[in-house]
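Page 37, continued from 36.
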């Protein structure tokens, strides 16, 4: 997802809201991170779906054959499916949460008050029966025999006839019917740009079961976690509609719409509908969008991936959708080089949705009146193909691992490719985090994303604080190490579900530096960093750790004779230090609030962390000038 923090920050400027938030902050809950300590396994799905879509009433009927392989060491007595569209109904959990959170997502509410004194009305609460979303399972069989299931709003609980044994495969045959909701969030019909179908989270999707157990999270607001596997999907839709999405189209000559091979004959069947047949292997979701007025541009690259651009023909932003195309080619090459090779044959950038949202092999992006308004979203969503659709972390638990890492790498890519700012990831990207700290809004990144006190705390934590996890790691272990770590992380964990522990172990092995303390402090607590220059006397300097979070310290000293020297003070818990030309001083043990060292010449000035990559919350005490 792409996060436009400006809106949220402006929203929070009202004083009433600040008071409410201060009360809420007292309710902070700390969660402990479960970690994978058994040998790795993951479940597998094989979906075959055939779906008939009615473009007039936005309803659809489908069949689903799901072959599920239990690779876990456990007997499974039940399974769970997500029925996401059921969240878009009055009085759903999503609706109730929307009515109770102090800073609701602006897209999901109507403001009946003023900017200063907002009074929000949930848009879900006002949906009429023909506008709601629903997904109803009509019949379900386990290995050919009807099986008992219970619908609990956006989750289907299936009580199995026989448990699924370790290593066993079962087949679930399902019939279902759905209605596409009015666009409220991420998916829906007729978005702001007039795109008819934005179809993320649209089918009954098996929940993931892993070393932590079932992940049957109700759909309230946040993102997703899916089972790795293969999808074979046929969509029957009105001939006038162009479809884009996940997977490779198997029958382009029977479809046309820009997918056909130009030197081969088209063979369009008679009738009102076309049957679009897609296959997507090694993915954990399947998404599509369709409109009767899409322009479809195809851009071939020399790295084995074809880019598809689908956007509305009938609006003023057509120029931006052309201009963004060469940038997308450069983004693909940047991520291939700096993370690892994109293995799929296609990636589609599709106008749709309600902002920007990542899906396998595609993204739905709203708007694009100017190149600048879609460029940042394109860089961000494209990077999610790596940090979610190959490195499939649990977005519904560790949102910082997909949003933070995506923000970090897409900022670097965008800086280099657009030449807007070649400095890389810099402290100017830290503003949102300092805002949270100043206002007492910060919560630990182990909080379940649905259950942060405020939306702003979730967003800044996931995107900003998550990306700072990497930029500060750069400060701790050095840029060259970080570059190697990202590639190694990709090589070892692509097409798996990496955990925070998996990432930090790679970082430790590559750098030779112990880093558990860093994962704990930055992710699992809200401790802050504040180092100060306590005293400079003669040739002796005393530094102080004012904040709770420890860090290694870089110190720059300018001498009276005009020369200067750079020092690094490793944290004792690191058992090592970054590769650097700086003079390495003795370790600083965490428990010690002060640290004194001597130099050989007369001191003119001292500064802690000139790079400003360390998120020191009070830089006023970082400098000494004689
Ligand atoms: Zn995102």
């Amino acid at each position: 997802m792409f996060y436009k923090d400006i809106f949220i920050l402006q929203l929070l400027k009202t004083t009433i809201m600040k008071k409410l938030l201060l009360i809420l902050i007292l309710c902070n809950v700390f969660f402990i991170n479960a970690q994978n300590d058994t040998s790795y396994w993951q479940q597998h799905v094989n979906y075959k779906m055939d779906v008939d879509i009615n473009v007039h009433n936005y309803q659809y009927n489908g069949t689903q054959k799901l072959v599920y392989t239990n690779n876990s060491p456990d007997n499974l007595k039940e399974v769970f499916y997500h029925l996401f569209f059921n969240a878009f109904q009055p009085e759903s959990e999503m609706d109730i949460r929307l009515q109770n959170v102090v800073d609701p997502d602006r897209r999901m509410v109507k403001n009946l008050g003023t900017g200063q004194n907002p009074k929000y009305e949930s848009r879900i609460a006002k949906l009429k029966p023909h506008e709601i979303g629903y997904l109803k399972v009509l019949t379900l069989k386990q290995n050919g025999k009807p099986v008992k299931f219970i619908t609990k709003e956006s989750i289907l609980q299936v009580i199995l006839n026989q448990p699924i044994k370790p290593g066993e495969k079962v087949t679930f045959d399902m019939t279902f019917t759905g209605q596409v909701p009015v666009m409220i969030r991420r998916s829906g019909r007729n978005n702001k740009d007039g795109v008819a179908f934005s179809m993320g989270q649209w089918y009954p999707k098996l929940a993931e079961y892993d070393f932590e157990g079932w992940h049957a999270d109700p759909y309230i607001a946040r993102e997703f976690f899916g089972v790795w596997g293969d999808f074979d999907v046929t969509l029957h839709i009105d001939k006038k509609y162009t479809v884009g999405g996940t997977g490779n189209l198997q029958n382009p000559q029977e479809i046309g719409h820009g997918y056909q091979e130009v030197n081969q004959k088209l063979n369009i069947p008679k009738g009102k509908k076309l049957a679009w047949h897609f296959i997507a292997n090694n993915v954990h979701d399947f998404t599509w969008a369709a409109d009767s007025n899409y322009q479809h541009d195809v851009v071939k690259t020399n790295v084995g991936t074809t880019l598809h651009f689908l956007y509305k023909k009938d609006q003023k932003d057509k120029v931006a959708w052309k201009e963004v195309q060469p940038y997308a080619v450069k983004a693909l090459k940047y991520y291939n080089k700096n993370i690892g090779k994109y293995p799929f044959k296609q990636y589609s950038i599709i106008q749709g949705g309600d902002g920007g949202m990542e899906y396998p092999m595609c993204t739905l992006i709203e708007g694009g009146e100017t190149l600048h308004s879609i460029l940042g979203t394109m860089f961000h969503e494209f990077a999610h193909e790596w940090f979610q659709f190959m490195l499939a972390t649990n977005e519904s638990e560790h949102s910082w691992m997909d949003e933070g890492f995506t923000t970090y790498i897409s900022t670097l890519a965008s800086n280099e490719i657009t030449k807007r700012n070649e400095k890389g990831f810099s402290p100017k990207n830290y503003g949102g985090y300092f805002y949270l700290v100043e206002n007492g809004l910060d919560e630990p990144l182990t909080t379940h994303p649905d259950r942060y006190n405020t939306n702003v705390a979730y967003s800044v934590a996931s995107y900003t604080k998550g990306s700072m996890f990497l930029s500060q790691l750069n400060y701790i272990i050095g840029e060259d190490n970080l570059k190697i770590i990202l590639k190694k992380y990709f090589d070892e964990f692509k097409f798996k579900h990496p955990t925070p522990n998996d990432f930090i172990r790679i970082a430790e092995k590559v750098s030779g530096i112990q880093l558990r303390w860093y994962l704990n402090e930055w992710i699992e607590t809200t401790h802050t960093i504040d180092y100060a220059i306590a005293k400079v006397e003669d040739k002796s300097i005393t530094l102080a750790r004012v904040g709770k979070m420890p860090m290694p310290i870089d110190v720059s000293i300018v001498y009276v004779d005009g020369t200067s020297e750079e020092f690094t003070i490793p944290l004792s818990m690191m058992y090592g230090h970054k590769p650097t030309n700086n003079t390495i001083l003795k370790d600083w043990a965490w428990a010690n609030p002060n640290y004194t060292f001597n130099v050989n010449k007369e001191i003119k000035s001292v500064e802690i962390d000139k790079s400003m990559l360390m998120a020191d919350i009070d830089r006023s005490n970082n400098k000494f000038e004689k």
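Residues 1-2, 358, 380, 384, 403, 406 surround zinc ion (CB under 6 Å). Flag for discussion at group meeting. The radius of gyration is 26 Å.
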